[in-house]
């Protein structure tokens, strides 16, 4: 009895000690989570029901802020811009980074170096990326210069043209973010079981068929993860339009987060900004939930 | 387990107490109750050193008051100020700029003549019109340390090479157009079109003699004289083609950058950049002139920065003394003789010109005197920040002929005019 009980007691007390230690180690993070995540989130819900200037008296106004959102001439365009950006950016980014990851397959010599090259824009400060793109796109820039010299054609003023500005923000964002998803897909592709691949090859799968019917379904969890994350970040897009086009021309590239930023920090109407932020939150949750619902149809976790 | 819970509660309570302690200790902007904090923007070590030199004057004049300087770069200063005001933690003596005041008036104490006396200052100490800089709807919220107005800067090499007349003190809008047209040659433009609030409004205001806001704070963007002048201004790009269209709405300093990179022969900018343009990195010979005169005169706005006292300041008496020292003759003489900016105190102003390179001194002096001769304080509406945020990105469409200036002004008037 004593022999059997003693280790139990020891393991019991050890578990307690470990639990205490774990809590000790986790408490700074928990305090941080409470102070910097939970409290602000709860506060922002409260805020969205108040007329809450940055300074001065705060008054409860029920759901008026949510109604005011739709009276603001810039809110719906900002929502539209965010959706347009997402609809253009997510498929482009995912498809191109997947194509890139597949093309940088085992047969390519120096693919490690190439991956690093494609990853560089992800870790380069956005300011530097934007400066380069501005130099390429402006009327006195490289693209227009080359077009005029080689073809005698004058290109549009891309960032100042209502019809082109959003397209350029998307293209620049795809270029900037492509390396991140590429790395996720490359890691997934490296993990493909050789036995399955060989079986497919023996069955005669080659080229597009091999990619579409074997590789893509097998890395579908990675594609699912990348799509979810890309979708969330693109609904929260801010820096690229802010720096590349300043939200202009007019409000043609102003996304929802820039609208929220303007309301909160430029116009000091925190209640309205909080209401806008909750609309964005609802949008992100809904889109993500739909994606999770839809994953059952196309994501395979078998292997 | 109980011990653990108690420990966790104590830890959380400790953090909470520490955090509340932080806020209450710095309430009213004092670091430890009897310290007067001065909050000002500073973008470089030079800026901070210059502010410290002024703080030394404060310490010398008020040995019994503890003062502390806090700084943030211009871009972050107003975000920080917004946060400080929201948390009741605004520094007792806080820097403010004329263009930004409208959004922050509720944080500052309205200053009276009695307050100025307590600070050891008098209205007559300051250059004419300068006390309007930090005033809003007739109330004074701060005292300026510098004054500025808008000027036309020009690239003498470029204008001379193009055979254009150089801008003179008493030049007109016709002279301006003629010079801009002549200098638009060989891939270069005569003028750098403005995107910043002051940079684009200066010429329309001068030409029409009307501000886009009336003295009582009513938005009047569609005032026929102002709207016509603004339409003329946009026409410099779209009709007269003497200025390059702007590449992006994020190019807030487009016209000024075109000028410094020698793509444009003239640009409108504030007196605060005079020394920078004269000693430009590109090495061209720069000159300056007041804004041209039109049929309706040559109205120009007086702008500038200064200090105000926070509404939440617990020690207003000492704060006023610090404010007085920051604007004392010694402090203003330092600003003037270092050439950093044109001081608001009239008796210190001549020192500014002595700091300018001898080659430019006379021109700068004559231009400044002429430019400040007919100035008016800037009038702003309550939602002026919204107006600027709406108009600036729309200007890009105007300069690229996708929209008319009149339509943009009408739209802004409709949205923000009530």
Layout of strands and helices, then pairs:
The complex is a heterodimer of chains A (303) and B (418).
Chain A: H1 2-47, E1 50-51, E2 59-60, H2 64-71, H3 75-103, H4 111-123, H5 126-137, H6 142-151, H7 162-190, H8 194-202, H9 207-218, H10 220-235, H11 239-244, H12 256-266, H13 270-298
Antiparallel strand pairs in A: 1-2
Helix pairs in contact in A: 2-13, 3-7, 3-10, 3-12, 4-7, 7-10, 10-13, 12-13
Chain B: H1 2-25, E1 35-41, H2 45-61, E2 66-72, H3 74-86, E3 93-97, H4 113-118, E4 135-136, E5 139-140, E6 143-148, E7 150-155, H5 156-161, H6 173-183, E8 189-192, H7 197-208, H8 224-238, H9 254-260, E9 264-270, H10 274-278, E10 286-289, E11 300-309, H11 316-326, H12 329-337, H13 349-354, H14 358-371, E12 375-377, H15 384-399, H16 405-416
Could you explain the architecture of this structure?
The complex is a heterodimer of chains A (303) and B (418). Chain A has 303 residues and is mainly α. Chain A contains 13 helices and two strands. Chain A has a two-stranded antiparallel sheet with strand order 1-2. In chain A, helix 3 (75-103) packs across helix 12 (256-266), helix 10 runs antiparallel to helix 13 and helix 12 runs antiparallel to helix 13 (270-298). Chain A starts with a helix and ends in a 5-residue tail after the last helix. The mean pLDDT of chain A is 91. In chain B, strands 1, 2, 3, 6, 11 and 12 form a six-stranded mixed beta sheet that branches. Chain B has 418 residues and is α/β, with parallel strands linked by helices. Chain B has 16 helices and twelve strands. In chain B, helix 2 (45-61) packs across helix 11, helix 2 packs antiparallel against helix 12 (329-337) and helix 15 runs antiparallel to helix 16. Chain B has helices spanning 2-25, 45-61, 74-86, 113-118, 156-161, 173-183, 197-208, 224-238, 254-260, 274-278, 316-326, 329-337, 349-354, 358-371, 384-399, 405-416, and strands spanning 35-41, 66-72, 93-97, 135-136, 139-140, 143-148, 150-155, 189-192, 264-270, 286-289, 300-309, 375-377.
């Amino acid at each position: 009895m004593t022999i059997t009980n003693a280790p139990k007691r020891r393991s019991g007390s050890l578990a307690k000690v470990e639990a205490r230690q774990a809590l000790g180690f986790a408490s700074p993070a928990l305090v941080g989570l409470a102070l910097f995540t939970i409290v602000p989130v709860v506060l922002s819900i409260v805020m969205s029901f108040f007329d809450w200037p940055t300074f001065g008296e705060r008054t409860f106004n029920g759901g008026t802020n949510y109604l005011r959102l739709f009276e603001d001439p810039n809110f719906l365009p900002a929502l539209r811009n965010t959706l347009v950006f997402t609809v253009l950016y997510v498929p482009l980014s995912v498809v191109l980074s997947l194509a890139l990851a597949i093309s940088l397959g085992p047969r390519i010599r120096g693919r490690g170096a190439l991956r690093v090259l494609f990853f560089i824009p992800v870790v380069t400060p956005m300011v530097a990326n934007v400066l380069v793109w501005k130099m390429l796109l402006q009327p006195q820039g490289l693209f227009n210069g080359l077009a005029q010299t080689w073809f005698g054609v004058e290109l549009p003023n891309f960032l100042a043209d209502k019809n082109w500005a959003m397209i350029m923000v998307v293209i620049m964002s795809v270029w900037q973010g492509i390396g991140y998803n590429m790395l996720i897909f490359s890691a997934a592709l490296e993990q493909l079981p050789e036995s399955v691949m060989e079986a497919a090859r023996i069955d005669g799968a080659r080229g597009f068929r091999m990619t579409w019917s074997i590789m893509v379904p097998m890395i579908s969890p990675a594609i699912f993860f990348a799509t979810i994350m890309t979708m969330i970040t693109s609904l929260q897009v801010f820096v690229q339009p802010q720096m590349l086009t300043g939200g202009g021309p007019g409000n043609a590239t102003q996304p929802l987060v820039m609208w929220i930023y303007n309301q909160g920090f430029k116009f000091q109407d925190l209640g309205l900004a909080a209401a806008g932020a909750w609309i964005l939150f609802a949008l992100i949750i809904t889109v993500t939930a739909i994606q999770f619902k839809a994953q059952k149809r196309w994501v395979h976790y078998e292997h | 387990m109980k011990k653990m819970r108690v420990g966790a509660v104590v830890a959380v309570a400790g953090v909470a107490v520490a955090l509340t302690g932080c806020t209450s200790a710095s309430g009213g902007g004092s670091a430890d109750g009897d310290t007067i904090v001065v909050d000002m923007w500073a973008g470089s070590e030079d800026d901070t050193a210059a502010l410290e030199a002024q703080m030394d004057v404060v310490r010398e004049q008020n040995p019994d008051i503890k003062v502390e300087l806090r700084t943030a770069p211009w871009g972050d200063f107003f975000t920080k100020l917004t946060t400080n005001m929201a948390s009741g933690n605004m520094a007792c003596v806080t820097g403010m700029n004329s263009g930004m005041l409208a959004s922050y008036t509720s944080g500052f104490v309205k200053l009276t003549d009695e307050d100025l006396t307590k600070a050891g200052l008098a209205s007559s100490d300051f250059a004419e019109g300068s006390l309007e800089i930090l005033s809003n709807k007739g109330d004074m919220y701060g005292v300026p340390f510098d004054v500025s107005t808008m000027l036309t800067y020009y690239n003498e090499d470029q204008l001379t090479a193009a055979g254009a007349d150089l801008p003179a003190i008493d030049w007109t809008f016709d002279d301006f157009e003629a010079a801009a047209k002549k200098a638009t040659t060989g891939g270069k433009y005569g003028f750098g079109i403005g995107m910043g609030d002051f940079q684009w409004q200066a010429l329309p205001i001068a030409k029409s003699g009307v501000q886009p806001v009336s003295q009582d704070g009513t938005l009047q963007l569609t005032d026929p004289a102002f709207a016509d002048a603004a339409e003329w201004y946009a026409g410099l790009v779209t009709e007269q083609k003497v200025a390059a269209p702007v590449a992006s709405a994020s190019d807030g300093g487009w016209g000024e950058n075109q000028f410094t990179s020698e793509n444009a022969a003239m640009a409108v900018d504030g007196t605060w950049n005079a020394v920078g343009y004269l000693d430009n990195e590109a090495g061209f010979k720069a000159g300056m002139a007041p804004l041209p005169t039109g049929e309706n005169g040559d109205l120009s706005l007086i702008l500038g920065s200064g200090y105000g006292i926070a509404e939440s300041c617990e020690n207003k008496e000492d704060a006023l003394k610090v404010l007085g020292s920051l604007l004392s003759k010694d402090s203003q003489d330092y600003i003037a003789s270092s050439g950093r900016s044109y001081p608001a105190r009239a008796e210190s102003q001549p020192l500014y010109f002595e700091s300018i390179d001898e080659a430019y001194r006379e021109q700068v002096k004559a231009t400044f005197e002429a430019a400040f001769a007919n100035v008016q304080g800037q009038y702003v509406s309550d939602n002026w920040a919204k107006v600027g945020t709406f108009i600036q990105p729309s200007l890009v469409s105007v300069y690229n002929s996708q929209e008319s200036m009149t339509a943009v002004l009408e739209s802004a008037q409709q949205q923000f005019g009530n």
